[in-house]
Amino acid sequence: xxxxxxxxxxxxxxxxxxxxxIEILKPPHQKLAIxxxxxHSGRSYSNEFLSSSQLNAIxxxxxxxxxxxxxxxxxxxxxxxTINALYPRAFVDPNRAASELDPNMFFGKVSNYKPSPRVTxxxxxxxxxxxxxxxxxxxxxxxxxxxxxxxxYYKPYHSNxxxxxxxxxxxxxxxxxxxxxxxxxxxxxPRENKNIGHKDIVLGDRFGKSCAPWITESSSLFFTKLGLxxxxxxxxxxxxxxxxxxxPSKNVHALQIEINRxxxxxxxxxxxxxxxxxxxxxxxxxxxxxxxxIN
Length: 295
Hints:
Layout lengths: L7 E3 L11 E4 L8 E5 L5 E3 H6 L15 H4 L10 E4 L20 E2 L9 H5 L19 E2 H30 L2 E9 L17 E4 L8 H13 L4 E3 L7 H6 L6 E9 L4 E2 L4 E2 L2 H20 L1
Helix pairs in contact: 5-7
């Protein structure tokens, strides 16, 4: 698995082609009313972005949800469509509202921005910091660059995700969106619960607003029966994707799933361990089980 140890670098036209930086896996025949979203597992870094950052090739990866796309890659084989952002979260974060911009990051006029606690902390749609809290840039970047990234990278992700949800609901009359992430075993963020390292799985349903409670409860029970420790809405309740798409009254449920990275990878050098295959198998069984529950 040595090919996982270094980041991927983008060259040529790929840098400007947002569609080529989104991976959509669709089964020939969708069998389950589930859509999988992985907005933070992207590890394709353009040379231009790397040169604009003051961070090295390891530190720039602190915001990634490493190999989450690998964990769920078998979903398409059981009839579930999946969408993955291939560009990194440090570059553009699809799990934010497009308006979550920090005007102080840019020179030039920034339009339609909306302050939020996440923006203040440095984690807006164009992040100022990586997850460790370290600043990405040593100087301001052009405001026009923010607009370009949102138009070219952010919007294609959401337009395609929305289409997958609509197609699923049209076929089954309902849709469960699983927004898939990973979490560090030890948090460096002082705002987070210090017990994060004691949980294997964190489920987030915006405190019951984005997903029917019985779906969250069934999911929690599945993992608990396997001996995994589970927390619900603590410390992660879900962000923009669950909030924006989850609407149980219209039969669209959105549940965020966080997996402790200690279960499947070396967090120091970003290499997967033998646990990657094990957690992939667990999540495959989970998808099959929760698919039966909602269908």
